[in-house]
From TrEMBL:
Protein name: Purple acid phosphatase
CDD domains: MPP_PAPs
Keyword Hydrolase: yes
Enzyme class: hydrolase
Length: 461
C-alpha cells in the first residue's frame, strides 16, 4: 500500500518525495501500533484444486510397495508394506546399506471390499533401535528395493510436521515436496489420508505416493471421516482399509520408562505415544468412533492423561479430525459434541495444543477453553489443507471471532519444533504456487512451565 502511494505521487507530481516518505512512515507507525492479538483474515486468493494423480500401476508380485514406518514404543519401529503376491513378513535391517545384521518377522493380512481384494499387507516391529540413527532395511527378502529410516531423537529438540487431509492430487504432491524440502523427525496426520472414498485401489496409489517420505520417517496418523468407508449391508465394518493398512501403536504403552505408564488404548482409532524421552506426549484422538460418556475412548483418555507426568512431559499435544474451534463456514459445529465430551479433560491436563484437519483451510486460534480465550487452554490449530481433491474451504464466518488469530484458505502444512522444555515454535507453510512460504508462526510456551497454570488444585481431572 505504501509503495503504491509513492508511485502515484511520482506520476501525478502532486506529492513530493518528502511527503511520500512521510506517508510511508505514518503507515508503518500505525501498523506497529496495532495490537498483536488483532484477528486477521488473510486476503490470499488460491488457485483452484489440482487433478487427482494417476498412480495406479502395480509393482511386481514379490516387490514391496507402499512402505511406511511408525513408532511402536520408545525404541522400536513398525514397518508396514504390501506385496501383490505371497511373500514373507520379514524385515532385514542394519546401520549400513546392504548390510543387514538383524531381522524381524511380523504378520500378514488381507482384506476384501466389495469386488476388491487387497494385496498381502505385512507389518513387522524392528528394534530395539538406537535413537537418531539411520537404519537401512529391505522387506520380504526383496533385493529389488532398499529403504532407510531415521529413528527419532531421544532428547529435545524434536521436529514434527503436521499435515491433514492429504489426498493424492497435484497439490498433495506440492505439499509433500515442501515437507521433504526440510528435515523433520516425525509426521502427524490428523485424519483423511487417501480420499479413496470406497475405491480401494486409491488406497494403493496413496501408499505409493507417500512411500518416499513415509518409509523414511515415522508417520503417525489418526482417522478422519474419509477413512470410515462403511456401506450399509454391503460393507458394514467401518475403517476396514484404514485399520488394515495404517496400523498404529494402540497396543503399545504411550509412555516410556516413567513411573506412571498409561495403558494401551486397545483400539487403532485412538492411541498415544511419547517422543524425546517423554518430553513430548502426543494424544491421537478418534473423531469417528465413540467419545462420549461411558465410551472406551473417553475412559482411556482419562487414564492416559492422568498418567502423564508434567514434570517430564514438557509438552502435551492432541490431534483430532473435526476441529473443536472453527470459524470457517465449512463443517461448522461438527466438532462440538467431541469438544463437549473431552475439552475439560484436556484443559485439566494442561494440553498445550490441539491440531485438527477436516476443514480445508488453515486457522489458528488463541489459547481457548469453553469458547473463550484462556491463558491455560490449548492453542487450537486447523491444518486440513494438505491438498485433497475436494479443494479449499474458502468461506469464513464474518466477523472473524476475537479468539481466531489467523485464518487463510490455502494448501500447506505445519511444523511444530519443540525447541526445549519451555518453548515450541509453530509455523504454517503455505504452498504459494509451488514455493513454500511461512505465512503464520507463533511461539508456544509450555503450560507445565507456567506457574499460573500449574497449580494442581486447579486441575479438573
Ligand atoms: Fe474430513
Amino acid at each position: 500500500m505504501a509503495a503504491a502511494a509513492v508511485g502515484r505521487g511520482r506520476r501525478s507530481g502532486g506529492m513530493g518525495m518528502a511527503q511520500a516518505l512521510l506517508v510511508v512512515v505514518v503507515v508503518l507507525a500505525a501498523a506497529a501500533a496495532l495490537p498483536a492479538s488483532l484477528a486477521v483474515t488473510s486476503p490470499y486468493v488460491r488457485p483452484p484444486p489440482r487433478a487427482t494423480l494417476s498412480l495406479l500401476q502395480d509393482a511386481d508380485g514379490q516387490t514391496p510397495q507402499q512402505v511406511h514406518v511408525s513408532m511402536a514404543g520408545q525404541d522400536k519401529m513398525r514397518v508396514s508394506w504390501i506385496t501383490a503376491g505371497d511373500a514373507p513378513a520379514t524385515v532385514e535391517y542394519g546401520t549400513a546399506p546392504g548390510h543387514y545384521t538383524r531381522s524381524a518377522t511380523g504378520t500378514t493380512a488381507t482384506y476384501s471390499y466389495l469386488l476388491y481384494r487387497s494385496g498381502n499387507i505385512h507389518d513387522a516391529v524392528v528394534g530395539p533401535l538406537r535413537p537418531a540413527t539411520t537404519y537401512y532395511y529391505r522387506c520380504s527378502g526383496s533385493a529389488a528395493r532398499e529403504f532407510s529410516f531415521r529413528t527419532p531423537p531421544a532428547t529435545l529438540p524434536f521436529r514434527f510436521v503436521v499435515a491433514g487431509d492429504l489426498g493424492q492430487t497435484g497439490w498433495t504432491n506440492s505439499t509433500l515436496e515442501h515437507v521433504a524440502a526440510a528435515d523433520y523427525d516425525a509426521l502427524l496426520l490428523p485424519g483423511d489420508l487417501s480420499y479413496a472414498d470406497f475405491v480401494q485401489s486409491r488406497w494403493d496409489s496413496f501408499g505409493r505416493l507417500v512411500e518416499p517420505l513415509a518409509s523414511a520417517r515415522p508417520w503417525m496418523v489418526t482417522e478422519g471421516n474419509h477413512e470410515v468407508e462403511k456401506l450399509p449391508l454391503l460393507e458394514p465394518t467401518p475403517f476396514k482399509a484404514y485399520n488394515a493398512r495404517w496400523r498404529m501403536p494402540y497396543d503399545v504403552s504411550g509412555a516410556g520408562a516413567g513411573a506412571a505408564v498409561p495403558p494401551p488404548s486397545g483400539d487403532n482409532l485412538y492411541y498415544s505415544f511419547d517422543v524425546a524421552g517423554g518430553a513430548v506426549h502426543v494424544v491421537m484422538l478418534g473423531s469417528y468412533t465413540d467419545y462420549g460418556a461411558g465410551s472406551a475412548q473417553l475412559a482411556w483418555l482419562q487414564r492416559d492423561l492422568a498418567a502423564v507426568d508434567r514434570g517430564r512431559a514438557a509438552f502435551v499435544v492432541a490431534l483430532v479430525h473435526a476441529p473443536w474451534y472453527n470459524s470457517n463456514e465449512a463443517h461448522q459445529g461438527e466438532g462440538d459434541a467431541m469438544r463437549a465430551a473431552m475439552e475439560e479433560l484436556l484443559y485439566g491436563a494442561r494440553v498445550d495444543a490441539v491440531f485438527a484437519g477436516h476443514v480445508h483451510a488453515y486457522e489458528r486460534f488463541a489459547r481457548v477453553y469453553g469458547g473463550k480465550e484462556d491463558p491455560c487452554g490449548p492453542v487450537h490449530v486447523t491444518v486440513g489443507d494438505g491438498g485433497n481433491r475436494e479443494g479449499l474451504a474458502g468461506k469464513f464466518v464474518h466477523p472473524q471471532p476475537a479468539i481466531s488469530a489467523f485464518r487463510e484458505a490455502s494448501f500447506g502444512h505445519g511444523r511444530l519444533e519443540v525447541v526445549n522444555a519451555t518453548h515450541a515454535l509453530w509455523t504454517w507453510h503455505r504452498n504459494d504456487d509451488d514455493e513454500p512460504v511461512v505465512a503464520d508462526q507463533v511461539l508456544i510456551t509450555s503450560l507445565a512451565a507456567n506457574p499460573a497454570c500449574n497449580n494442581r488444585t486447579n486441575h479438573k481431572m
